[in-house]
Write a structure and sequence with these properties.
heterodimer; A: 116 residues; alpha/beta; five-stranded mixed β-sheet; 45% helix; B: 143 residues; alpha+beta; five-stranded antiparallel β-sheet; 4 helices; 28% strand
Chain lengths: 116, 143
Amino acid sequence: MGLNVQMALRKNILVIRLKGELDQATVTSLKYKVSEVIDKYRIKNLVINLQEVPFMDSSGIGFIIGRYTQVKLRKGHIAICSMNEMIERIVNLSGLKKICLIASDEKEAEERLEVA
Amino acid sequence: MKKNVMKISFLAKTENVIFARTVAVGFLVNLNMEIGFLNEIKTAISEAVTNAIVHGYNHDESKFVELEMSYDDYLVTMEIIDHGIGIENVEKAREPLFSSKIDEERAGLGFTIMEVFSDELTVKSKVGEETRVRMVKTYSASR
């Protein structure tokens, strides 16, 4: 089990692909890995791809809000893509849609960030 | 009449959050519930157990979290218990976006999610003694 993280830098956008369940246990190390890269490369824009995340609870929301706070300092944006129905319900409940872009796939997420 | 009951206790380690929500769904496997219903239970249990570990025990991994579940023909009842610090102001804790740990990237959504994904949420807490989170959920089984 555990969470697998894949990160790629494309045209000033950091794309994070996650694989596994996002909860309190997996979010802690994810937070250090991702926030380190954001600081090191002065990342402005972030795509969080949840295609292979079957489960996420409010710890995942906390993680996204944390990264938003980080990129906001550089006037950056976050796009979340490929959520399953259950995760989308939690994202809706959290009000995250007010501060993040929502896209159906990675391509759309990048396109939306380019014009954001 | 109760048809089935289970009680477990496990150490307050964050890796046991996935254990708890998996066990919860496993307990209900015979009821042929819809996947959406089970996902709501999974998420609600995940939130309650995370709260017990993070807030109740402040990550003291030597302590135990208890999970009790039962079902009859119509209702699933879940109770998550910790013997930790307790909640001074339950009303305040239940407010959306409120978190007592502002430096930890917490969304303050735990109770909101539990409330939305169950039909009844009761939180009983005694400061310095225990917190009991009880959730009841109605189901219609395909029998």
